[in-house]
Design brief:
Length: 424
């Protein structure tokens, strides 16, 4: 256990972390390093591997502080979770190299890591009990509902500002909305909007736990909350209509049959004779794969692999696949429906598979599937599915399925692309 004086100091810092607005040490808005330090303080994690393992083992005793129903918890306002965090790329040159890419822009994978950490802190600010020194809740990422890009260029030498707060609350789940702006030409302008869904679990991250209800103040907050309800309903509908559960619609079946007819060899008049039409690529030839060994360095505050790290690796593989497919540098349009199905343990062999599954005009839809491989049993377990929409500067080839399974991937990619384009 940490000494009492250290716990007392950590509690004081944590309380300040949950102040309304951009209040922090020295009266400045916190940066991402402070965000991650605060998260460690909230759960009692350590930067030292052995101390961290001990701290996680001791968290089981915090179960006694969990509420047995949501009614036991005080309602919190949206403003209670408001936070502003700065990424001083302009004023701290030493920070730039971590975020800089070869094209003299910002590595978007690093932004995904920052958004994930910020979403967790926002949700802890909503559930924080100032009477406790550590939170009994384990708040983890369940879903990245949507990330919409408002600007293609992110400057590597201009300050970035993140803002966000809780927008919707269920029994054990919380929706957090975040905005990213960048200072350029004398003013901050929008870069992206992101919606994350987080879930609260017990101290050992084994079962669901209740979170504070949301107290709405005024018609504007009512509207924001209702949008959260709409988002939840949409997610349920999409899950119910998943091609892994039900057959494609009549219209989608016609699409698949048209694709099949476009690849028939008219000379052989055979179902087996398939030819590739001009300006087309077989889906089988539009893949890219990767492997990561999950080291303790990439752990989160709950001793699992950091969700932001998984998003960064998946995004970079998806970007590389889109780049190789299109033959030019792609820009991100949206991140859609990232599902966290299973946590990734330290020491896992993480296998990533990227597939261009749909193209239209200058757009490339990429799906990245990640799974862990147990080298002893040779069993594969899916952990995440990622969907990215990219745009390039020229029309891209059509990607065509050959098997029924590839046809379902094609239709799934088309669905995600159409959903993304609705908001553009």
């Amino acid at each position: 256990m940490l000494p009492h004086r250290v716990l007392k100091r950590a509690s004081s810092l944590t309380s300040r972390a949950f102040s309304v607005g951009p209040v922090c040490l020295q009266g400045k808005a916190p940066d991402m390093a402070e965000v991650r330090n605060r998260l460690r303080q909230i759960v009692g994690a350590s930067t030292n591997w052995k101390d961290h393992q001990q701290a996680m083992a001791e968290r089981a005793s915090l179960s006694t502080y969990l509420a047995s129903s949501q009614n036991e918890l005080p309602a919190k306002r949206m403003k209670d979770s408001e936070i502003e965090v700065h990424l001083p790329l302009g004023t701290q040159p030493s920070l730039r190299e971590k975020y800089l890419n070869y094209h003299n822009s910002v590595r978007f994978g690093r932004i995904l890591e920052d958004l994930d950490s910020l979403a967790v802190l926002i949700c802890y600010s909503h559930t924080w009990n100032k009477e406790l020194q550590k939170s009994p809740l384990s708040i983890v990422t369940a879903l990245v509902d949507k990330i919409d890009m408002r600007k293609n260029i992110i400057y590597p030498d201009c300050d970035i500002k993140f803002t966000g707060h809780v927008t919707w609350v269920g029994k054990s789940s919380i929706e957090a909305k975040m905005h990213m702006t960048q200072f350029h030409d004398g003013a901050y302008s929008p870069v992206l909007d992101a919606t994350f869904v987080m879930v609260a679990r017990d101290p050992e991250n084994k079962r669901a736990a209740f979170v504070n209800p949301l107290q709405l103040e005024g018609p504007e907050e009512e509207k924001i909350f209702q949008q959260g309800e709409i988002n939840k309903k949409r997610r349920v509908e999409l899950s119910t209509a998943s091609l892994l559960k039900v057959a494609p619609t009549a219209e989608e079946r016609n699409v698949v049959h048209s694709l099949f007819l476009s690849t028939l060899d008219t000379k052989t008049v055979s179902f087996r004779g398939r030819i590739l039409p001009p300006n087309s690529v077989w889906m089988e030839d539009a893949k890219l794969k990767g492997l990561e060994i999950c080291h303790p360095q990439e752990r989160n505050i709950f001793n699992r692999i950091f969700g932001g790290f998984l998003m960064r690796k998946a995004y970079e593989l998806g970007w590389a696949n889109a780049c190789a497919f299109a033959g030019c540098r792609p820009s991100l349009v949206a991140v859609d429906d990232i599902l966290f199905q299973k946590p990734v343990e330290i020491g896992s062999l993480l296998m990533l598979s990227s597939q261009v599954c749909y193209t239209e005009g200058e757009h490339v839809q990429v799906r990245v599937h990640t799974e862990v491989l147990d080298p002893l049993t040779r069993q594969h377990s899916t952990t995440n599915v990622f969907h990215f929409t990219f745009r390039v500067e020229k029309a891209v080839p059509a990607v065509l399925p050959q098997s029924y399974g590839e046809s379902m991937l094609y239709l799934d990619g088309k669905r995600h692309f159409n959903e993304t384009m609705k908001g553009q």
